[in-house]
Amino acid sequence: MNHPTRRDFLGAAAATAAAGLLPSAAQAQERRFAPEPGAWRSFEFTTRIELIKPAGAARAWLPIPSIDTEYQRSLDNDWTGNAAVTRVVADSHYGAKMLYAEFPAGSAAPVLQLTSRVQTRSRATDWSRKVAVQEDPATLKAWTAATDLMPTDGIVRQTAMDATKGAKTDLDKVQRLYDWVVANTHREPKVRGCGVGDIKAMLETGNMGGKCGDINALFVGLCRSVGVPARDVYGIRLVPSAFGYRELGGNPAKLQGAQHCRAEVFLASHGWVAMDPADVGKVMRLETTEWIKDVNHPVVAPVKKALFGGWEGNWMAFNTAHDVALPGSTVGDKLGFLMYPQAESAQGRYDALDPDNFKYTITAREIA
After folding, report:
1. How far apart are CA 337 and CA 324, in angstroms?
2. What is the predicted pLDDT for the residue at 21?
3. Does residue 345 sit in helix, strand or coil?
4. What's the structural domain count of the chain?
5. Closest Cα partner for 282 from 237, 316, 319?
6. What percent helix, strand, coil does the chain show, rounded to 5?
7. Could you tell me which residues come within 8 angstroms of residue 312 by beta carbon, excluding any fewer than 6 positions away?
8. pTM for this structure?
9. In this predicted structure, what is the pLDDT of residue 356?
């Protein structure tokens, strides 16, 4: 069968977006989605915040790319604004970096702008090539630990044990858990932001709808509960997908709401491997005008296959941190994860999902 070219997909996606329409599931043709490691892409990523009428002194934290791996190089950062104090800080447990700023009471309207430069590339696992990967046992053990919102006992472990019954290897376990999450969860557009990630509540209530912060957290928690090291990777989409999938890319001129977390698992024969069951659910729910329920549908099948072991390099990672305590915060409440700009004043912490009171813009541009 002759597949459409990349240019065909990009042209079709642009025409569809311009018309404000999406194809129905019945109209959708077979797609290609097959990210492969290749040349590095360079991006400049800018976040600008403005605090509206802060009460007293104010503080802000902007996430900084903290990942350096075979799929991302976090390069340098610079910033401007009218803060009295600005410095790079990190959470004490995971080392997630952020730009911290202090604005004294009575100062002009607080403004802070951070620009980061990164290089990214796509990932894909060659399942036919097994390599014994050495990793510090203590490090791997840490990636099987429970977090505040990700217990690894009780209903979480029982669910994972049931889903992996009879599995002989870590790869078998991960494949079964990936398939289970895709089959038993769904994208729920009404959930704010990227969700909360309270996986115990999901399983106990049977409310399996959510977004990436819920669905990929569930996958990671299930893996950890049966001894497979796993972690969420928190980041943001930067540019459109090269494969024409509208829901798997970002608009670089306006990236507010483009935050997306992915997942990784450690396999003895392959090392750290990319995963993203949440994006399978997103394609099923939103890529066409109809909610696709069949994972073998020609729009869904290539995504489900590719995101087990890979992801596209049009996305940038910030960190892998859970239960983040913001350095210098007077509020004290931990964040389940750090993907969004954060700020607080004497009235408490700003709602990062309320643009009327916490104004910010996020943009990106690819550097040739």
Report:
1. 6
2. 65
3. strand
4. 2
5. 237
6. 25, 30, 50
7. 35, 122, 241, 242, 243, 248
8. 0.92
9. 77
Q: For residue 366, is pLDDT > 70?
A: yes
> Are residues 170 and 107 part of one domain?
no
Question: Is-contact 122 79, C-beta < 8 A?
Answer: no
- Rounded to whole angstroms, the Cα distance separating 339 from 317 reads 9
Q: Are 114 and 129 within 8 A, CB to CB? A: no
Domain that holds residue 350: 41-120+322-367
CB atoms under 10 Å from CB of 278, counted, come to 29
Element spanning 181, H or E: helix 170-184
Contact 249, 314 (CB under 8 A): yes
pLDDT for 98-116, tens place per residue? 999 999 998 778 999 999 9
Identify whether 23 is part of a domain: no
Q: What are the C-alpha distances in Å from 54 to residues 330, 334, 358? A: 15, 21, 10
> What is the C-alpha separation between 235 and 75, in angstroms, rounded?
15
Return phi, psi of residue 229, to 5°: -60, 135
What pLDDT digit, counting tens, does each position of 148-183 carry? 999 999 999 999 999 999 999 999 999 999 999 999
Q: At residue 8, does pLDDT exceed 50?
A: no
Q: Are residues 195 and 95 located together in one domain of the fold?
A: no
Nearest to 100 by CA among 58, 46, 55: 58
Section 240-251 average pLDDT? 97
- The whole-number pLDDT of residue 12 equals 43
Is residue 73, in this structure, part of any structural domain at all?
yes
Are 219 and 160 part of one and the same domain?
yes
Q: Say if 10 falls within a structural domain.
A: no
CB 74 within 8 A of CB 68: yes
Distances in Å between the Cα of 193 and the Cα atoms of 23, 337, 339 are: 25, 12, 10
Q: Give, in order, the Cα–Cα distances in Å from 220 to each of 46, 185, 274, 278, 325.
A: 29, 14, 12, 11, 21
| 228 plus 331 within the same structural domain | no
Residue 136 and residue 108 share a domain:
no
Q: Under a CB-based contact definition with an 8 Å cutoff, are residues 241 and 314 in contact? A: yes
Nearest-angstrom CA–CA distance, 54 and 36: 46
